[in-house]
Amino acid sequence: MIVIGDAAHAPSPSSGQGASLSIEDAVVLAKSLRDLPTPQAAFARFEAARRPRVERIIKWAARINNSKAAGPVARMLRDAMLPMILTMTADSKALRQTYDYHIDWDTHTHTPAAA
After folding, report:
1. Distance between CA 83 and CA 78 in Å, rounded?
2. How does pLDDT run across 68-111, given as a tens digit for each residue?
3. How would you classify residue 42: left for phi > 0, otherwise alpha for psi between -120 and 50, otherwise beta?
4. Which of 4, 65, 73, 79 is deepest in the core (most CB within 10 A)?
């Protein structure tokens, strides 16, 4: 048995990433099952492939969620700084890693190297 999607890693609802991560999980799991000889190998490869991205998204979602309830002074500071921050980060590596993610169905999955 394997758990995927929100059952495995539920990001903050305010991040808007739950459905996307679930769909990505399904595609990567399907590729792993298609390309590897045993379910055990497929599950191991799936976990190794998904863990870094999912952990990064979960941390990012938690940061966003924690910053949603700013007090009055923090709101003023945030509102004053936000235009500059958005300009600086609009094409950042972190945003590209989150929103420009692609799973190539035609690329075959390989067994992870033994630890």
Report:
1. 9
2. 666 788 888 888 888 888 777 777 777 777 788 888 999 888 77
3. alpha
4. 4
Q: Is 9 exposed, middle or buried (0-12, 13-18, 19+ CB in 10 A)?
A: buried
Task: For residue 61, give Cα distances in angstroms to 1, 17, 36, 68.
Answer: 27, 8, 32, 11
pLDDT score of 66: 67
Going by C-alpha positions, the residue among 44, 55, 65 that lies closest to residue 21 is: 55
- CA 72, CA 78: separation in Å to the nearest integer? 10
**Distances 79 to 4, 62, 73, 95 between C-alpha atoms, Å:** 37, 20, 10, 20
Three-class SS of residue 110? Answer: coil
Q: How far apart, in whole angstroms, are the C-alpha atoms of residue 8 and residue 5?
A: 6
